[in-house]
Write a structure and sequence with these properties.
GMP Synthetase, Chain A, domain 3; alpha/beta; 98 residues; 2 helices
């Protein structure tokens, strides 16, 4: 079923997770007939070990599933790895075929 997802909904869930920084990007892909969403998010500067990052990814995935109603992939990146822009942030990268 189609579900409308807004970047602000994802941002709200990221802000609830202590081990994550508020810098993120949403990647949309298509596998067969199904759309998929991966949330790329930066780890907080103090979240250095793999255990805390895995826990943060699991927590974020759970929050998104409960609030938005969809399952997403979560990829945690090092701080400062997600591209920053001077103007409006480009939050969604759509890689689905047209």
């Amino acid at each position: 079923r189609g579900v409308n997802v807004f970047p602000t909904q994802i941002e709200e869930q990221i802000l609830k997770c202590r081990g994550l920084a508020p810098h993120f990007q949403i990647e949309l892909t298509r596998s067969g007939r199904m759309d998929a969403m991966i949330v790329h998010v930066e780890a907080a500067a103090d979240a250095v070990d793999d255990e805390s990052r895995k826990a943060s990814a699991k927590e974020l995935s759970h929050h998104i599933k409960s609030v938005v109603g969809i399952s997403t992939g979560i990829e945690i990146h090092e701080p400062e790895q997600i591209v920053r822009s001077d103007g409006k942030a480009k939050r969604v990268v759509d890689k689905r075929p047209k």
